[in-house]
Amino acid sequence: MSNVEVRRVGQHDFVATNDRGASVRVGRKGAEGAFTPVELLLAAAAGCAAVTAETLITRRVDGDLVARADDVRSADGHSLTSVPVALDYDVSTLDDTERAALETAIRRAIDQLCTVTRTLKSAPPTPLTLPT
To answer: Which SUPFAM superfamilies does the annotation name (predicted)?
Structure first.
């Protein structure tokens, strides 16, 4: 089980730290050098897909692997209606059959193993605890 702690270090300035010592700045939209909470969610979705698919892709093709997740908001702007994730890598050396087989393997792996995107699809409860 992993824990992430987010600690206030200044006005609208926070640092998220995991139990392995990694950290990332978190702030409001426009805060220099910081991710917004929504951007962290997008990074988690894209990162999970990339980490899950990496071995499948790099066994078959060379070059860069880039994952992107987009922020698709509701009309009021206060919730996400979708978190589309795209993987980009060079398939020019693959024939149609190889491309199709790779796509099937990647989709299956992400659907079965990517904790973040699986969690987003199921929308689990997020209880809030406050001091008493």
So the answer is: OsmC-like (SSF82784)
Domain count, the chain: 2
Element (H, E) at 102: helix 96-113
- Judge if 51 and 15 occupy the same domain: no
Pairing of strands 80-82, 85-88: unpaired
In a domain, 128, yes or no: no
Q: How many whole angstroms from its chain centre is CA 105?
A: 19
What is the tens place of the pLDDT at every residue in 61-108? 999 999 999 999 999 999 999 999 999 999 999 999 999 999 999 999
Domain residues for 29?
A: 1-35
